[in-house]
Specification:
With about 350 residues, the protein is an alpha/beta fold. The chain has helices spanning about 50-60, 100-105, 135-140, 160-175, 180-185, 190-210, 220-240, 255-265, 275-285; strands at about 10, 15, 25, 35, 40-45, 70, 120, 125-130. The protein has two domains: about 10-145, Glutaredoxin, CATH 3.40.30.10; about 160-335, Glutathione S-transferase Yfyf (Class Pi), Chain A, domain 2 (Up-down Bundle), CATH 1.20.1050. Strands 6-5-7-8 form a four-stranded mixed β-sheet. Helix 1 (about 50-60) runs antiparallel to helix 7 and helix 4 (about 160-175) packs antiparallel against helix 6. InterPro entries: Glutathione-S-Trfase_C-like, Glutathione-S-Trfase_C_sf, Glutathione_S-Trfase, Glutathione_S-Trfase_N, GST_Omega-like_C, GST_Omega/GSH.
Length: about 350
């Protein structure tokens, strides 16, 4: 999902996100024109974007790297599209595209909706299949099971799905999108309402996590992935840039310990690129930050401090195992992680 106002609107000063996505699905049972097929599809994501970061985490936790290749757009984009400026010659090495927009136009030459990440692209045709970000990750869990790694966690367990769906919906509307509702409010009344909604929801998840290690109990689920990508950006971006400043994450004891617990779990923190995150928000949102100056802080080495959540019991992967080392070509640069250059 793109982090700009493009395709979004306002009602009485309140930010409303455009959710008009291509809703095709890649399925294992032949119910769609797009069958599960290892090597056929390419996930296009961006480390800067919280919505795309979810797909990077879920792909890694489930061990789908060999089945679904990944291309990464750079942290900034213009009004047209995310671009592949991190790659040699500025082109995705598999698709040959300079802009993600090309995959959308290959699908529909008249396409006029948002060009967003994450997106699944059919490599043979070069066409985008879907950019329906919440469904993409659920389908990784439910449609690609034949290609999960041994020991992969069940991120969307059937007995919990009804409750999970309710929890994830509230996290999306009130927290994931809530920080944007604060940042892009068009008047004081809308901002005040958005601020109250956001921190009411943060208090709710804090209470929920006070006596359980993860949102749904003793093991990680997709609900934790969805909350984590917002928490990881909170102090670096949302607290100041989006005026979500009742407290920093580091001042919310339960959520700060929970966020560090996940960050230090393989598959979570090893996908986070703080310099790209800050560059994206502070440069792309020039209407909020006209100087486009990127702050040096905060110190991210604190993400590696002890969290103490083990005392609550549970195990992140249950009876499974953590994912192995990050593939060499998908590692976050050493100087982009906690304690690295630019994080002091």
């Amino acid at each position: 999902m793109s982090d700009t106002r493009s395709g979004s609107g306002y009602v009485e000063g309140e930010f409303e996100r455009d959710t008009d996505y291509i809703e095709d699905r890649i399925t294992a049972d032949g119910s769609s024109p797009w069958p599960v097929e290892p090597g056929r599809y390419r996930l296009i994501a961006a480390r800067a974007c919280p919505w795309a970061n979810r797909s990077i985490i879920v792909r890694r936790l489930l061990g789908l790297e060999s089945a679904i290749s990944m291309g990464l757009a750079g942290p900034t984009h213009d009004e047209r599209s995310w671009t592949f400026d991190l790659d040699p010659d500025g082109r995705d090495p598999v698709l040959g595209y300079e802009r993600l927009q090309e995959a959308f136009l290959a699908r529909d030459p008249e396409y006029s909706r948002g060009i967003t990440v994450p997106a699944m692209v059919d490599v043979p045709s070069g066409q985008v299949v879907t950019n329906d970000f919440p469904q993409i990750t659920l389908d990784f869990s439910t449609q690609w099971t034949a290609h999960h790694r041994a020991g992969a966690p069940d991120l969307y367990p059937e007995p919990l799905r009804d409750e999970m769906d309710e929890v994830m919906q509230r996290i999306y509307t009130e927290i994931n999108n809530g920080v944007y509702r604060c940042g892009f409010s068009n008047d004081q009344k809308a901002y005040d309402k958005a601020y109250d909604r956001l921190f009411t929801a943060l208090d709710w998840v804090s209470d929920r996590l006070a006596d359980r290690r993860y949102l749904m109990g003793d093991t990680i689920t997709e609900a934790d992935v969805r909350l984590f990508t917002t928490l990881a950006r909170f102090d670096a971006v949302y607290h100041g840039h989006f005026k979500c400043n009742r407290q920093k994450l580091t001042e919310l004891p339960v959520l700060w310990a929970y966020a560090r617990d996940l960050f230090q779990t393989p598959g979570f923190g090893d996908t986070i690129d703080f310099p790209q995150i800050k560059e994206h928000y502070y440069v792309v949102h020039a209407d909020i930050n006209p100087t486009q100056i990127i702050p040096q802080g905060p110190d991210t080495s604190v993400w590696l401090t002890p969290h103490g959540r083990e005392e609550l019991g549970g195990s992140p992967f249950g009876d499974g195992t953590p994912p192995g080392p990050v593939a060499a070509d998908e590692e976050v640069p050493d100087d982009h992680g906690p304690g690295g250059i630019g994080h002091r």
